[in-house]
Amino acid sequence: MRHLIRALTLLLLLFAACEPEIIESHKNGGRIVLEFSHLVDGKALIADSLFYVNKAGNQYEINEVKYFISDVYLVNRNGKKAFIDDQTAIHYYDIDIPSTLDWNVFDTIEEGVYDSISFIFGLNEQRNISFAFVNPPEVNMFWPDILGGGYHYLMLNGKWKNPQNTTTPFDFHLGIGQRYSGTSTSVDSITGYVHNYFKVTLPLPAMQIENNSLRTISLAMNIDSWFKTPNTWDFNTWGGYIMQNQQAMQTAKENGFDVFTVISVR
Fold first, then answer.
1. Where are the domains of the chain?
2. Across residues 191-214, what is the average pLDDT?
3. Which residue from 237, 215, 95 is spatially nearest to 154, judged by alpha carbons?
């Protein structure tokens, strides 16, 4: 028994040594604002305009952009992580609601130089709970319970011109995917679910946090990147609705790796 206790103690010590140190929110420190813009081909998105062309040659327009980011943390030069508080770690962005585009983070961040920012695009299993939001606009992001429940990670809605030159709506949506038995996609053949959120990590240009300072991190969603890297997205192949198509959502998720960039820190 004594040898077992020693072995378990050693394993716990080794595990603790491998875990990155976490910085708690401090009364002394600075604050941050996360500011998001939305670009297509490096220029500000012009919504409701059918003049964009993706890599597959689809002519398209964007009408709505809505999404969640969560579990944000900064990493300083010593490798320490500074997390946003668990109770305020979710933010909803909507291009039609200007007040959502700037996230004034409540928590103070310890003084120091920070080299990167990370966040979850969407909501993880612990946060993506049906009825967690009871008020609009967040409540309007609900994902049907029969398809996995919780909320959409992303609603990117618009239109494209199909091969018949007809303008056709599309809902480029990310959320919980489904596994089906056989080739059926009826809800009574669902055998399991797939969580399609993903982690984003972006370098920062040596951001200095000082006591009582307020720093703004300006980030961009490059909407065209959803449609071109690493997978060429063809609306004529995937169609307008992908909520019950896990292969399509997996393709969209893979394209999310380079959608976000840091524009500036000020």
1. 21-265
2. 95
3. 95
